[in-house]
Design goal:
Number of helices: 10
Largest sheet: none
Distance between the termini: 55 Å
Order of helices and strands: HHHHHHHHHH
Helix content: 55-70%
Low-confidence stretches: none
Length: about 210
């Protein structure tokens, strides 16, 4: 039986002690298109809550698909490929700018909340997630960077090419879901990433009319 002291210690658990030098460089980088972006607090369940435990159990129930996870790890690559499949004009520099600048805010929020990854919570409960390990997963959990960038790009490109909104939306959902399939993120991390993407696109459209 889990003791109260152990639950209190679980609530104090974080992903790590703070950003690496590489991650701090991302946080400190200058920005141009998202400089007016402001954030509402991200609300997510406590580490020791029943909701978090249910999220862990949900992840444990997912059938692992390593090829699916690896295919969607590089967000820029899969969007480039979809443009090519659809015969659409594609600006690589524009895509890289969105990924580079959004990563600043993603990293900033990750270390602000410093939420443990699912495997850390699962280990406390003795649950084996058997997740996929990749270099892109070595950061705090919330928000999901892949969900953020996937939906940021789908919202951006869907305004430019509304006739292909469904194809872009399917790709963004696959990107976000691939991180759950990898057992790298909680579902609440995915939601936080999508909310951040929506806010980012609103700011960009108001300021630059880029879409």
């Amino acid at each position: 039986m889990i003791k109260l002291k152990e639950l209190l210690e679980l609530n104090e658990m974080t992903y790590n002690d703070g950003p690496t030098e590489k991650h701090q460089d991302r946080i400190d980088r200058p920005i141009t298109i998202f400089e007016d972006l402001e954030f509402a607090p991200i609300v997510y369940p406590d580490n020791s809550s029943r909701d978090t435990l249910e999220e862990v159990k949900y992840l444990a129930s997912l059938e692992e698909d390593r090829e699916f996870v690896k295919k969607h790890d590089k967000v820029g690559d899969v969007f480039s490929e979809l443009h090519e499949e659809l015969g659409l004009e594609f600006d690589l520099a524009e895509l890289k700018l969105h990924l580079r600048e959004s990563s600043k805010y993603i990293m900033e929020l990750k270390y602000k909340y410093n939420r443990p990854r699912p495997h850390q919570i699962a280990e406390f409960y003795g649950i084996d997630l058997n997740g996929v390990e990749m270099d892109s997963m070595k950061t705090p959990s919330i928000p999901s960077g892949h969900a953020t960038q996937g939906y940021l790009l789908v919202l951006f490109y869907s305004k430019r090419y509304p006739e292909y909104r469904k194809e872009f939306m399917n790709l963004a959902e696959d990107i976000a879901e691939s991180r759950l399939n990898a057992k790298a993120h909680f579902p609440s991390d995915k939601k936080a990433g999508i909310d951040l993407a929506k806010k980012s696109v609103e700011v960009e459209y108001r300021k630059y009319k880029r879409i």
